[in-house]
Design a protein that fits this description.
alpha+beta; 25% strand
């Protein structure tokens, strides 16, 4: 059995002698260009539902039979040091060792990208507790365009859960709807695909003031697929010119937004554009596909992974809202300092972490309950 979830009273936050750090306000040693790792760990440490899952030991009941669970065990140990340890600074050495065994690209001490690290870390945590022990080797059937969108989305999600089904998926994975509208015949084709985060472009503006909604608008706007990019029309059975549009069908409980500051074509170029993102009440209803409209579409910010400097010489920090006191703090490797909420939005913001307004709302899960793979 796992331990009961850890609950802190505000009176427990401070030690009268000041010798013990407030729970959750523990720094992380930089063991050699590991600020990217420290930043992401602090953001996930303040992800309430994930922290409770790993620190309480509940995850132990979910470790898949053929896995030793090395990544999630090391992650649990590190978060336990942060939340119930006695030291002002925790050591991520063992955690890094397990991560680089899972993802060798993080071997050594070179600078790494925080968003890429986040994806690998979540994948490692997920794989350790994935309920699907034997994945299907057969190709999953393509869903007919004749199916109503709601039914098609649900069936696509069920297909996904036959391969990927864990508590980590329940928290972080949403579902995008991709709609192709063919110019010649007017045929409309929809597909539904899971997403772990949303990577948004930083659009150029004449006012030098960019809002997060501008980035979402750019991501969701119509894209013309022509020439070599044409898609196959199932009605015409041929490659045809079409428009492609994204919308959100399933809203994740934890929404991760990646601001694309680094050019994939020029590793030396970084966009320093300042993006004004809401701390409270991010409303994503304008981007809904309107086929599952009873979901919670409002989010509140609780963590930001920041990158300062250039691509050649940069540094990562994290701004996080404490889940108990609701106060904001800056995590700069081993140093943790209190900050005002009005200092959270900066041009250094790189990865944003939002939580649904009501994480207790069951609407999202009613139609998407994980099902055991019985095949």
């Amino acid at each position: 059995m796992y331990n009961e979830p850890i609950h802190f009273r505000e009176a427990d936050m401070l030690d009268s002698q000041g010798s013990r750090p407030c729970p959750g306000l523990t720094g992380l040693r930089n063991i050699g260009n590991t600020c990217f790792l420290n930043s992401i760990v602090q953001c996930l440490s303040n992800t309430d539902l994930l922290r409770e899952f790993v620190v309480s030991g509940e995850y132990l009941n979910h470790i898949r039979s053929e896995s030793r669970g090395d990544v999630i065990r090391a992650f649990s140990d590190l978060l336990s040091d942060i939340w119930i340890g006695e030291k002002a600074c925790a050591d991520p050495t063992n955690f890094k060792l397990q991560i680089q065994r899972f993802a060798p690209r993080f071997t050594g001490y070179s600078q790494q990208d925080a968003q890429e690290f986040l994806r690998y870390l979540l994948e490692g945590l997920h794989q350790d507790v994935n309920k699907v022990t034997v994945k299907h080797r057969r190709i999953l059937p393509e869903l007919s365009d004749e199916l109503p969108d709601g039914q098609k989305a649900l069936e696509s999600w069920r297909q996904y859960l036959t391969l990927e089904n864990s508590h980590v998926v329940e928290l972080f994975v949403g579902q995008l709807k991709s709609t192709l509208t063919f110019t010649n015949c007017g045929h409309r084709s929809t597909t539904f695909e899971p997403f772990w985060d949303l990577s948004l472009p930083l659009v150029q503006t004449t006012t030098h003031e960019l809002k997060l909604s501008d980035c979402f608008d750019q991501f969701m706007q119509d894209e013309i697929l022509d020439g070599d990019n044409m898609a196959k029309c199932t009605r015409c059975n041929a490659q045809r010119r079409c428009t492609k549009r994204y919308s959100i069908h399933k809203y994740p409980r934890v929404l991760v937004v990646h601001l694309k500051r680094f050019s994939p074509n020029n590793k030396f170029h970084k966009l320093m554009t300042s993006v004004n993102f809401p701390i409270e009440g991010l409303d994503l209803s304008p981007y809904s596909d309107n086929t599952h409209g009873d979901q919670v579409m409002e989010y509140d910010l609780y963590a930001v992974s920041n990158h300062s400097g250039t691509t050649l010489s940069g540094h990562y920090t994290a701004n996080c809202r404490h889940p108990i006191t609701q106060e904001w703090h800056c995590f700069n490797d081993s140093n943790v300092t209190s900050i005002q909420a009005n200092r959270v939005v900066t041009s250094m913001a790189y990865v944003l972490f939002y939580e649904q307004r009501s994480t207790r709302c069951q609407t999202n899960r009613d139609c998407y309950l994980p099902t055991e793979d019985k095949s």
